């Protein structure tokens, strides 16, 4: 089946340190990566999706590959015999994440090149989704993202970019320099308030969310979505401002909420939804994932986003 959405980026094995925060005993192994989180979210919502990357030819790489495939995502990831699968460690305090440490320098995904990405898959897709994380991994991944965007533009495939700024990977100035060169080729941009401010880089008076969206839209994207966390999200599209409120949630683990939002938005977009519907779907998906521990485990299925599901809070006995 041809993928409606194609995405690429690094997924790492994930070690979650127990709630006492001490690395002194057994800890569960999982996986995490912004792009594969989005891919899993799309697959659960019924949108065919392909995730592309490189993994180490090691046990962690085999685990990552198997788990993502098990979620219904098509995986295209070369097994690199000379570089390991990346690793991240999530530290907890009182049962909730307090810090994430990355061990990804020299990882297999940092050796990603345009040769790893089949152009024909991008050309045949409705959406290419990339993030600001991948170009931060090194020159090869940066060229890969740029190449993928060029292929998508030439084929008429919609280009989606989530800023997903990681200060542990590069500085604000480095991120701004690279990502702003991509903006004229981007159709759909996702950013948080701080990320939008970083991209604009001007030290002038503080702007509200709608002004940030409008300013970024003037850089090229037809639609700019500003993620507002518990307050929902807004979009500036074709000169119009659209807002969508989020429902209150008890937050157990906020990591992955932004990826869930993007998955919900893109799934609704592929189904022909307008901006208002896409925002609402993104809010519902993001609200679901924060209610359970893990980066992606709480990603909703389509049935979870129905109006009936919103009222299904009773314990079934």
Strand fraction band? 15-25%
| Unreliable residue runs | none
Shape: globular
Biggest sheet: strand arrangement: 5-4-1-8-9-10-11-12-13
Distance between the termini: 39 Å
- Quickly count the helices: 10
From the 3D coordinates, which CATH architecture of the domain at 5-10 and 34-57 and 110-296 would you assign?
3-Layer(aba) Sandwich
Major beta sheet, specifics? 9 strands, mixed
> What is the ordering of alpha helices and beta strands?
EEEHEHEEEHEHEHEHHEEEHHH
- Identify the CATH homologous superfamily of the domain at 5-10 and 34-57 and 110-296: Ribokinase
What value does the Rg take, in angstroms?
19 Å
Q: How would you portray this structure in words?
A:
- The structure is a single chain.
- This protein has 317 residues and is α/β, with parallel strands linked by helices.
- It has a domain at 5-10 and 34-57 and 110-296: Ribokinase (UDP-N-acetylmuramoyl-L-alanine:D-glutamate ligase, 3-Layer(aba) Sandwich), CATH 3.40.1190.20.
- It contains 10 helices and 13 strands.
- The chain has helices at 34-44, 59-70, 119-124, 139-155, 172-182, 193-200, 209-217, 257-270, 275-289, 307-310, and strands at residues 5-8, 12-16, 29-32, 49-56, 74-80, 87-93, 96-103, 127-131, 158-162, 188-192, 223-227, 233-237, 240-244.
- A 9-stranded mixed beta sheet has the order 5-4-1-8-9-10-11-12-13, sandwiched between helices. The protein has a 4-stranded mixed beta sheet with strand order 3-2-6-7.
- The longest helix has 17 residues, at 139-155.
- The protein is globular and about 50 Å long.
- The model has no long low-confidence stretch (mean pLDDT 90).
- GO terms for molecular function: kinase activity.
- Residues 29-298 form the Carbohydrate kinase PfkB domain.
- Keywords: Kinase, Transferase.
